[in-house]
Every structure is written in structure tokens, then in C-alpha cells.
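User: Predict the complex with NAP.
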Amino acid sequence: MNINSPVPVGVLGGSGYVGQELLRLLAGHPGASVAFATAESAAGERRDGVGLVRIEDAPLARAEIVLSALPHGVSARYVQEARGLGKRAVDLSADFRLSPDAVYGLTEVTRPQVATADLVANPGCYPTAALLALLPLAREGLIDQSREVVIDAASGVTGAGRTLARDLLFGEVAEDFRAYAAGNEHRHLPELKATLAREGGFTGDLVFTPHLLPVKRGILETIHVPLTRAIDRATAEGIYETVYGNEPCVAVLHGALPSLKDVVYRNRVAIGVAAVANVRRPRLTVIAAIDNLVKGAAGQAIQNMNVMLGLPETAGLTC
Ligand SMILES: NC(=O)c1ccc[n+]([C@@H]2O[C@H](COP(=O)([O-])OP(=O)(O)OC[C@H]3O[C@@H](n4cnc5c(N)ncnc54)[C@H](OP(=O)(O)O)[C@@H]3O)[C@@H](O)[C@H]2O)c1
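Assistant: Here is the predicted structure with NAP placed in the model:
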């Protein structure tokens, strides 16, 4: 890494929760510097020493790579504008996650493709944790595809972004706990299904129910996995250890289950398992925890950027 000439990075949407996290992480990155950061209503303000400019005024040419934390639907247009100027890009919105024009940037799974990509679609926060938990089991043929995999997930309120919304006010959220998007129609489901099929050969059904947890950041997913054959906890942990033993950003717990304190402010997914007693057909409970703003968004984007630029993969990150 050449610390004397850091790579200039452009940040789109630098005033949002994810954009602010990008700027926080980039401020401590030894091989990158912020060329510009944009905002809409917060244009003119500063974050981490960077003045936020309107997106129309963004000096795109100054950046070598652009990270976009714009809302989906808005992001694609500006990412394409940057690509038109020959810039590489990581898009953190959902706009390219199902597109053949982008590499899906689940770093631990698609690292070689990320390295040579011009456009990386950063995965969603819920999918990052669920996919890293499910893919090793799917690849071993351990998931019974005739039964549903059930994912019950709870996210802190920053997962909904910084836009004002009445049902996200402190008075509505504090000391409460509720499901939302019940009925298996959450927008992350197509991304989950497509990636499990492509990377894990799993084409069975998923039932995904998100919940709103009254904390700022962090996601905990309880994943109920129907198995083709019974395995005990040590065997399951061994499967994860084989896959992730050398991965700096995946923590496999042994004889313990993760909680949010294992992951907040860290670029990591923590995975723990429990064998399921008192059922007639074999099943495993997998618990996965992630910081939605770090490994679920800004941290993984920087991990992908590092891979794209040939920098050490965890530069600027605490895993
Ligand atoms: N929050 C998460 O945990 C999470 C996790 C993974 C992926 N993501 C994805 O990351 C992206 C950003 O999420 P977020 O939670 O940071 O959202 P956010 O807090 O609502 O921030 C959105 C950003 O985009 C800017 N913006 C909004 N509308 C714009 C427009 N029409 N033109 C130009 N700029 C505009 C906002 O500027 P102002 O605030 O200055 O108006 C802000 O900087 C989204 O696509 C989201 O789906 C979020």
C-alpha cells in the first residue's frame, strides 16, 4: 500500500447513515482519501472534516473510485454517470444487485470476481449475514430443499435510513419490538434467493421476516435450517470453520451464540449454531449477527474497494 499517494475516493450520499459510516471509516484508511462527498438536504455541512457538496457539483473526475450510498432508484443514475467517466464503482443500494452488469460483492464468496470488477453491487445487510450463514450448509448439500428455511431477523433502526418517518420516532420505537414486511415479500428476498441458487445450488423456499429492534445498529438473525441428515453442533461448527477459518471478517463461535456486542462497529459477521432437540426431522438453528452499517454496508463496501484496488483487504477496517 502506498501511503504517500492515497487513492482518491468519491462518496455519494455522504450525509446518510451509510455515507457517514463510509466517511468515518475512510478517515482512518491508510491507503485512501476522500476526494469529495455529496449530500442533498445536508449540502454545505461537514462530516469527518469533509465538506458535503450537492451531487450536481460533485467533481467526479477527481475520484479513482466512487462509493454510492444513495437511495435505491436514485443511485443507478449517478453510478452510471461515474462509470461513463471511466470510474470504477461500488454501489451500496439495491439498484445493481440483480443486474448482470455488476459483480455481487459478497467478498468472502465472490472475491476473485470483485478484484477485476468495474462495478460491484454491495449486498444488502440482512442478505450478507444470511448468505454467509447458509452458503456453507447449502454447498455441503445439507439443506433439505423440500422444507422451508425460515429466517427471523431483527435490525436496529439505522437500517431504515435517516429520512424522517413517524413510525421510527424514538417515542414509537423505544421499549417496543415489532415485525414488519411479514408475509415473505421483503425486497431482500429476491437477492437472497438468487445468490443462494447461484453460489450454493439451493433453490428451495425461504421465509424471511424482519423485525425492528430498538437499538441504533446491529442485526441478529435466527435461521431455522431443515437438514437432509442430523449433525451435531461440533460437526456444524467444523463445517463453518473449514470455510471461514482463514477469513478475517467472519467469526465462527464454538459452543456459544453471537449477540450484537460481538459485531457492532466491526466489519464482521459472527456465526453460532445450536443442534435442535425434540423434533422428528433433523434441523439446525444458526444465529448470525452483523452491524448493518459496517459489514452490512459501509465496511463491506470498503472491503470490496480494497480488493478492487489491490490494497490489503482489511485496510481501514476493524474486523
Ligand atoms: N441503512 C442501512 O443499514 C443500509 C444497509 C445496507 C444498504 N443500505 C443502502 O444504502 C443506501 C443508503 O442508505 P442510508 O440508510 O444511508 O440512507 P439515508 O440515511 O436515507 O441516506 C441517503 C443519502 O442519499 C442522499 N439523497 C437522498 N435523496 C437524494 C437525491 N434525490 N439526490 C441526491 N442525493 C440524495 C441523502 O442526502 P441528505 O440526507 O443530505 O438529504 C443521504 O446522503 C440505500 O440505498 C440503502 O438501501 C442501507
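The chain has eight helices and 15 strands.
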